[in-house]
Write a structure and sequence with these properties.
By secondary structure, the protein is α/β, with parallel strands linked by helices. It contains 11 helices and 10 strands. The strands form 2 sheets. A 5-stranded mixed sheet has the order 3-2-1-4-5, with helices on both faces. A 5-stranded mixed sheet has the order 8-7-6-9-10, sandwiched between helices. Helix 5 packs across helix 6 (about 190-195) and helix 6 (about 190-195) packs across helix 8. The protein starts with 11 loop residues before the first strand and ends in a 20-residue tail after the last helix. It binds 5'-O-[(R)-(carboxyoxy)(hydroxy)phosphoryl]adenosine (KG4) and zinc ion (ZN).
Length: about 350
């Protein structure tokens, strides 16, 4: 396997992702073939504190990143010399955490002479859909729901996005995490609510579905979170027992209904026949089932990454970087971490 910057040879990208609490590296061939996808999750460490502690995340990334990169190269059977380029998430995310990945990627790029490509984290999440769906091409509508973002995005072309809706307050994943904490499930909340919701009655408690004025595609989840907290306080004051399963199922239903309604509205208004979901919350089984049903009923192709490509990983960064690479986009040695990087900005 030989590689040059030009020509038709295989494009092998080493991708690095350290924007939050996963230390990850992957080798991706020609954009959609994942040769390795190594993820060191710090979840156990942060669980002790009920959420991600930025300083601890940065320190752990420093400790783990070289080992994770070595494993990714080894599993892929690729040497540093054989790489075409090095890609890294440079925002948005926790600044200290991002800096670890950016610094290491720069070092590898400098030492090997391979080009460096800075990637937007959300672009990575969206691109995760390309990994297992070889037939998927833009344009399509994508709902990105993670711990930090809830965006409705028109993917016009590779690397070309229009955000048509966003959250006004909490992200969907943030709401999952806060509600999980309130009902005593602990961190990380999303997967725990997903699990116990299966045992509960989604119609046990009615929680409000927030409508926001101004933009019909925008979301708001802080009111829902407050409604759950008020319900829990009310129960405690009345000495009523709280059924974790029912509250989880009812909360999850409220989130899903809003996400499905907004997303399907966008798909039909914009006249698309392809719809994808991305981000950590996209691994929610209830959400996937709801979209599966809605899309089938409307004749829309529904795409979703496997759960391992929904939550933070480096393979999705390698996929996004491939399309940037093809366009000739390269980053310089002045690449910096940008904690609030906007989608579509460079
Ligand atoms: O995309 P991600 O790994 O990191 C960010 O970029 O934020 O998303 C993490 C978020 C967390 O809030 C987590 O609770 C949520 O995704 N999440 C889920 C599930 N798995 C992860 N939320 C609902 N159901 C799940 N199964
Ligand atoms: Zn993420």
């Amino acid at each position: 396997m030989r590689n040059t910057e030009a020509g038709n040879e295989d494009v092998l990208i080493l991708a690095i992702e350290t924007s939050c609490d996963e230390t990850a590296a992957a080798v991706v061939k020609n954009g959609r073939e994942v040769l390795s996808n190594i993820i060191f999750s710090q979840i156990d460490l942060h669980t002790l504190y009920g959420g991600v502690v930025p300083e601890i995340a940065s320190r752990k990334h420093i400790e783990k990143i070289n080992q994770v990169i070595r494993e990714a190269l080894k599993e892929a059977g690729v040497t540093l010399k054989e790489l075409t380029a090095v890609a890294v998430t440079y925002g948005p995310g926790l600044v200290g955490a991002l800096l670890v990945g950016v610094s290491v990627a720069k070092a590898v790029s400098f030492a090997t002479g391979k080009p460096l490509i800075g990637v937007h984290h959300i672009e990575g999440h969206i691109s995760a859909n390309f990994i297992e769906n070889p037939e998927l091409e833009p344009p399509f509508v994508c709902l990105v729901v993670s711990g930090g973002h809830s965006h409705l995005v028109i993917v016009k072309d590779y690397g070309e996005y229009e955000i048509i809706g966003r959250t006004r307050d909490d992200a969907a994943g943030e709401a999952f995490d806060k509600v999980a904490r309130a009902i005593g499930l602990g961190y990380p909340g999303g997967p725990k609510i997903d699990k116990v919701a299966k045992l509960g009655n989604p119609d046990a408690v009615y929680f409000p579905r927030a409508k926001v004025g101004g933009n019909e595609y925008d979301f708001s989840f802080s009111g829902l979170k407050s409604a759950v907290l008020n319900y829990l306080n009310g129960c405690r004051m009345k000495g009523q027992e709280i059924c974790q399963e029912d509250v989880a199922a009812s909360f999850q239903k409220a989130v899903i209904e809003v996400l499905v309604e907004h997303a399907m509205h966008a798909v039909s208004e914009y006249g698309f026949h392809k719809f994808a979901i991305a981000g950590g919350v996209a691994s929610n089984s209830g959400l996937r089932a709801a979209f599966e049903m809605e899309c089938a009923g409307r004749g829309i192709e529904f795409y979703h990454p496997s759960p391992i490509y929904c939550t933070d990983n480096a393979a999705m960064i390698g996929t996004a970087a491939y399309y940037e690479y093809k366009k000739g986009i390269r980053s310089g040695m002045d690449l910096n971490a940008v904690p609030n990087l906007k989608l579509g900005e460079r």
